[in-house]
Amino acid sequence: MPVADAVSILSQGYTPSIILAVVAVLLIIRQRLAVQLDPKEPPILKPKVPYIGHIIGLFQHHGAYFDKLYARKPMPIATLPMINAKLYIITDPVMAQNAFRHKNLSFDPFTLEFAQRMLGVSDESMVPVRFAGDEKNPGFLAQFLKEIHEAMRGEYLHKMNADVLNGVAVTINELGKTFEPESLFYWLRGTITVATSNALFGSFNPFKDDPALGDALWDFDNGLMGLILNLFPAITFPAAYKGRAKIQEALIKYYTAEHDLDPSVSQMAKVRAALFRRKGIPAFDIGKFELALIHVSTANAIPTLFWNLCFVATAPKTTATIRKEIESIITVSTLDNGKREAVIDITKFDTHCPVLVSSYRETIRLANAQLGARRAMEDTILSDGKNEYLLKAGCDIQLPAGVPHLNEAAWGPTASSFDATRFMSPEERGDSSAKARLEDREQKRSYFPFGGGKHLCPGRNFAFAEILGTIAVLVTGFDVNNRDGGMIEIPKLGRARLGEGVAKPTGKGLTMGARIERRTGWEDVVWKFTC
Ligand code: HEM
C-alpha cells in the first residue's frame, strides 16, 4: 500500500488539528526529556537507546558498563543523559583525584540516603545524623569521619591487625595434614568473617559461635541493591531482608548490653557507638547502624583475598619467590610441647616481601572496580590542569576506578593480565631510570581502589595486614591445589555489581573446592603473627 494511502487511512476520522496537537505534545515531551547542557559542562555521551539506554546499560552490565562506554568512546569526562537527569563520569586519573579532594563534591548525601534504606534505621535516629553542623558544632558525619580515621591508626590499628591475624591462626592451626574445603571461597569467607568480627567486636562478638550469622551477612550483601531500592524489600529481596533482620537482632542485643565498652573491643567499634550514644541514638538503632561496620569491613577484603590467593597459587614461580620472602621474616622456635612455632613479623612485609606486596596491589588493580560516588553541592569547576569543566549543583558524579585500572596507556599492552611484579618500585626492579620512574608515577595516579580525599578508605591498612598475613601463612605453610591435587583454575573474574567494590566469584568459581595440604618441613608448625 502506498504511504500516502496508509497515512490517509490512519488519519481518517481525525482532524488535522488533533494530529498537530499530538505532534506538539510529543515535541514538548521530547524537549522536557532532553538534557539541558551548558557549553562548559562535560561533553555528552549519548546512549544507544535514547533517554533510557544508560539506565538499562547500568542495570544490565553493572560496573562493566563503564568499561563498555570507554571502549566505545574514550572520554576523560562525560555527561550521561538519563531520562531528563544527567550523571557525570570521570575516568581521567588527574581529574578523578581532583574530584575526590574537591570540597564541593560530597559523599554525604549518599551516606544519608543509603544508610536509612539499607539499614532500616528509624526517622528519629536519622535526625542527629543529618545534622550538617553550625558555627559552634561540627556536623555529625564530619565528626564521625574524623573519629573513625583516628581509630584506625597507630596502636589501635596494631591491636586490630594482631587480633584478626591471630584469629586466622586459630583456624589454620586446627587444620590437619590435609584439609579439603568444598568451596575455597566459602571457607575463606567464613574464616575471615569470624576473624574480622572478633577483631572489631571483641570477646562478645555475636558472629563468633554462630556461622548462620555469617551466612546472613552475605545474604544481606547479595541483595543490597534491592534493599536500597526499598520497594517492598520483604517480598522482593526476602533473603537479604531476613539476613539484615537476623544480624541486627544480634547487634541490638550486643549494644543493649553495652558490650562495646569491653577492653577487647576495637577502637573503631568503640568510638562509633560512643558517638551514637552521645547524640542520643538508642541501642536499638545503634545495632541497626552497626551492620554497616561489619559489612564494610568484610565485603571487599574477602573477595580480594580470594583472588590474590588464586593468582599466587596458580603461578609456581611467584609462589616460590613469595615463600622465600616470607621465610626471611619468620622466626621459628621450639615450644615446651615439642611443637615448633613459626612467627611471621608482618611489620616487615613492606621491606622484605616486594613480590607479595606487589601481587596484592596487582590483584586489587584487576579485581577492584569501585564506582566512587560524589554529588556536586554547588556549581563547581573541575580541572585536569589543561581543561576546565562545569559540574552543575545537584548532579551526581561517578568515578569508576575499573577504567583507569585497565587502561593500556598507563599499564601497557598487558594491562588486562596479572603480573605479580608490576607494582614493584623501579628501585626494586633494578631500573631507576627517569623513564621507569615516570611510568611508575603515571601508574600510581591511575590507581584509586580505595577512593580518595577525606573519604579515603580508613580500613585500607587493616585490609593490607589481614590479607597479606593470611596469604603468607597459606602459601608458606601449605600447598593450595584443587581437590585432585592439581593446580586450581582461576575462576572468571568479572566486574563488580552496582553497590560492590570488588567482584566476587560466580557460578563454578563459588563452588570451586580445594586441597590445602601442609608442606613438607612445616607439618608440625603452629603459626603466630607479630604486628
Ligand atoms: C580490599 C579491601 C577494601 C577496599 C577495596 C575498600 C574500598 C573502599 C572504598 C572505595 C571506599 C569509599 C571511598 C571513597 O568514596 O572515597 C571505602 C570506604 C570505607 N571503608 Fe573500605 N575498603 C576495603 C576494606 C575495608 C576494611 C577492612 C574496613 C574496616 C575495617 C573498611 C572501612 C571503610 C569505611 C568505614 C569506609 C567509609 C569511609 C567514609 O565514608 O569516609 N574498608 N572503602
How is the topology of this model organized?
Elements: H1 3-10, H2 16-33, H3 53-61, H4 64-72, E1 77-82, E2 85-90, H5 93-101, E3 105-106, H6 108-119, H7 123-130, H8 140-150, H9 154-173, E4 178-179, H10 184-201, H11 211-222, H12 224-229, H13 233-236, H14 238-256, H15 267-278, H16 283-289, H17 291-298, H18 301-313, H19 316-327, E5 330-334, E6 340-345, H20 349-352, H21 354-367, E7 371-376, E8 380-383, E9 388-391, E10 396-400, H22 402-405, H23 408-411, H24 426-429, H25 434-445, H26 460-477, E11 478-481, H27 508-511, E12 515-518, E13 525-530
Parallel strand pairs: 2-10, 6-13
Antiparallel strand pairs: 1-2, 3-7, 4-12, 5-6, 7-10, 8-9, 11-12
Helix pairs in contact: 8-15, 9-10, 9-26, 10-18, 11-14, 14-16, 18-21, 18-26
Bound molecules: protoporphyrin IX containing FE.
Pfam families: p450 (PF00067)
Organism: Phialocephala subalpina
Transmembrane segments: 6-29
* Strand fraction: 5-15%
Quickly give the CATH architecture of one domain: Orthogonal Bundle
Q: What is the rounded Rg?
A: 26 Å
Measured distance between first and last alpha carbons:
83 Å
Q: Report the biggest beta sheet as strand number plus sense, adding barrel if it closes.
A: 5 strands, mixed
The overall pLDDT average reads 93
Structural class of the secondary structure composition? alpha+beta
CATH class of one domain, named Mainly Alpha
Number of strands: 13
Strand order of the largest sheet: 1-2-10-7-3
3D shape: globular
As residue ranges, the low-confidence spans are 6-11
Count of helical stretches: 27
CATH homologous superfamily annotation of one domain: Cytochrome P450
CATH topology of one domain: Cytochrome p450
* Overall helicity: 40-55%
Cofactor: heme
Keywords: Heme, Iron, Membrane, Metal-binding, Monooxygenase, Oxidoreductase, Transmembrane, Transmembrane helix
InterPro entries: CYP450_monoxygenase_sec-met, Cyt_P450, Cyt_P450_CS, Cyt_P450_E_grp-IV, Cyt_P450_sf
Organism: Phialocephala subalpina
